[in-house]
Amino acid sequence: MIKLIAIDMDGTLLNSQKEISDLDKKTLQKAAKAGIKIVLCTGRPKSGITPYFDQLNLSDEEYVIGNNGCLTMTNKDWQLLHTEGVDAEDLEALEALLADFPQLNLVLFTPEANYVLGREINAQTKRDAEIEFSKIFHTDLPSFKEKNIPVLVPIFIGEPRILDAFQERFDSQLTEKYNTVRSLDYAFEALPMGVSKAKALARLAQDLGIQTEEIMAIGDGNNDLEMLEFAGLSVAMANAKAAVKKIAQVETSSNDQSGVAQAILKYALNSSRLRDEQI
């Protein structure tokens, strides 16, 4: 029996227009009313999650895992339950990697805003902020440190072909201290070691008294791999990357065909009574 559904956002719950379909909304409401906990698990920061979660109009307490596992929140007053982050003294070494890649930004994601290091804010960073409704501030590292703000995750952002070269050069070095993930073609993340959607989901499930086999996870991207491997039932979107489809137990329709709703109806609301009720 499924008691918790962990759902990625971009490429999964959100369609190509960055919208949630009416069928997905109604099906999630139906699942919540049936007592299933709904957890959005995403690389997005708080600012890029809350407007969408509010659209779901879920009456019971539900949960969000953001920044690829660096923060866990409840939708009740958006209270932070758990956070992970990187040490301030590590930031100088990360910024130094930009020396040969001046077109990239190092974006410091904090609980409430993003701070951009680099010569100027590039187009990809601006676009990412628009998509995620984030406040961004161009700064230098000494000025940022004076603010004494915790950094959840540093992300290198820029043109994909330049980021490819950056990742090829520095990935092995960074993986000695960070959990690196290419969450988007323009974003290369240096998560704190051991942090992932899967780790945050495991901790939340333990808090809620839910067993692994009672969890269904739905995703499409590389940053969903560990979450899908952790869940009792793993579901890949039809538009998922090949690596995701390879490890997932089942596949659903694409994000433009309400694949989340199709998976929930088939695998979570699978009693005849729940499945056949009017949505």
Automatic annotation (TrEMBL):
Cross-referenced Gene3D superfamilies: 3.30.1240.10, HAD superfamily/HAD-like (3.40.50.1000)
Record-given protein name: HAD-superfamily hydrolase
Pfam families reported for this sequence: Hydrolase_3
Keyword set, alphabetical order: Hydrolase
GO MF annotations, alphabetized: magnesium ion binding; phosphatase activity
Superkingdom per UniProt: Bacteria
Example of a GO cellular component annotation carried by this entry: cytosol
SUPFAM superfamilies linked to this entry: HAD-like
